[in-house]
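Structure request: Acetyl-coenzyme A synthetase, Micromonospora sonneratiae.
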Amino acid sequence: MSETLANLLQETREFPPPAALAAEANVTAEAYAEAAADRLAFWDKQARRLDWARDWDQVLDWSNPPFAKWFVGGQLNVAYNCLDRHVKAGLGDRVAIHWEGEPGDTRTITYADLLRMTSQAANALTDLGVTAGDRVAIYLPMIPEAAVAMLACARIGATHSVVFGGFSVDALTNRIQDASAKVVITADGGYRRGKPSALKPTVDDAVAQCPTVEHVLVVRRTGGEVTWTDKDLWWHDTVETAAEQHEAQPFDAEHPLFILYTSGTTARPKGILHTTGGYLTQVSYTTHAVFDLKPETDVFWCTADIGWVTGHSYIVYGPLSNAATQIMYEGTPDTPHKGRFWEIVDRYRATILYTAPTLIRTMMKWGDDIPAGYDLSSLRLLGSVGEPINPEAWIWYRQHVGRGELPVVDTWWQTETGGMMISPLPGVTAAKPGSAMSPLPGISADVVDDQGVPVPNGGGGYLVLSEPWPSMLRTIWGDDQRFIDTYWSRFPGRYFAGDGAKKDADGHVWLLGRVDDVMLVSGHNISTTEVESALVSHPSVAEAAVVGATDPTTGQAIVAFTIPRGHVDTAGEAGEALIAELRNHVAKSLGPIAKPRQIMLVPELPKTRSGKIMRRLLRDVAENRSLGDVTTLQDSSVMELISSGLTSGK
Ligand code: WT7
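Returned structure:
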């Protein structure tokens, strides 16, 4: 990316931490100095926040890169660290999970409850013949049993593979087969958009093709009708009748904890493998540091689904290892009304909210008056993850959710990194809207050019991670060579994240989206993220997705799909005028080279189930092709909506 239009976006706003938060912060600037002086000693110290059954002999073994071993010789039990030790410390009555179902049913689960439920599930799985090292697939809605199932696997050393409950038969089948899972844990169904949605038929079809599966445990959630096979067992007959005592055994620090498949749209999904000691160390520490979590008083809410890594690390393992009280919600943000999230924040007095830019932009589109209708005064910290957050969405989040005063932490990481890597520290960093700022203490990242040479401040290129980190993926399940090829070959010795990035004049990191999405216009590399942010900075725009379409004169040309904000008139000439204005607006903010050839006003954008925009499909529209594979779309009717309602200006 030698010719990247670096610093196209002149974002100069900066928001220092609130003085009161800084004064009481869990982590201060000292942590950076400490980690810089001795990175391994720093992680050694963070690992000691956990309870280990056996101490380690070596912090990091990097003698056979890229295969890392952290806390070599150490032993611990992940579930013990998330449950037993808190109950032993007298915290059994503390609420672990305030759960809310989409229809409005609720459950309050204390740490003592969660320990009992997990022990029962561990005993039941053991009775079914599951032993350490076996794989268990979990295909559940967002109900407490999802966390219980994961913790029970961790407790007995079985490796879980959670498959998002919205995935199809094929996706589930591939994942069960790739990991040779012995047991599947599922439910009759869950609630989604106001109605029960069945899961069991998908499992039936998948299991019919998966001879390794010996048993299917079924939670009753919706009470819907299910067909029963001889492999099926009800959770309430099996787990809820099992013994309530279970003694957790320690496992090796490098024992496999879970496999999670990245949702690749073209290539075969990759089973990302995470292990025990390093993973728990980093997710536990980052929960403490980045969310400034105070377990006695905070009420934490991460809105992700447990089927994504965000749910693994910041619903299950991070918060629970810190003895946090958290909220878990089953459903969608607009069921039964668009204030649902804010109602939940208000009801449980949430103090920390962690959500995704796609949701923030959706809330912007729905209008400022919706959050304004609720009491959000309990909130003290806001987080974002999953995509680059456009500066205007960041500002809106802080303004309309954060009363114009709360810190926003924009956290960059990946399924592969296991835990957060680049993020502000809320008590230390003066955050810039749209920037993930700096690598966390103990993390080494850089931005390099094509040749792997670090770019100077002001330059752009590829994001790399230059030293191993505790929660790094250990391999791709069953495919060491693919692990090496995908992540460690582009820049030997360094991890290639696949994201474009730039360093600003102060050396802070700005993520520019996946490198595959960068556009080449008249010989200039232009980031989709920057053009999208320029569009979203216009008061009439809620959301935008930009793609490069083949163009006879410029190689690629910029085509933008834009969702107007709720109040904006786009009929007839007003629409044409808005399009003209937006094209000029982008040219003015980024320079004439970035002026979109074409802007289309659309009601929706195609997104994957984890909320990422599927630019591939928009490229098909922009280049007048028939659509490629749409099976990973969250809502398959969106593409029809886009193609039928196009208002396009050239
Ligand atoms: C990709 C990883 C991290 C858990 C959820 C997604 C993008 C993620 C940010 C951020 C800019 C971000 C990157 C990354 N991404 N967070 N704060 N700023 N981009 O996990 O599905 O493995 O996706 O999401 O492109 O590589 P994932």
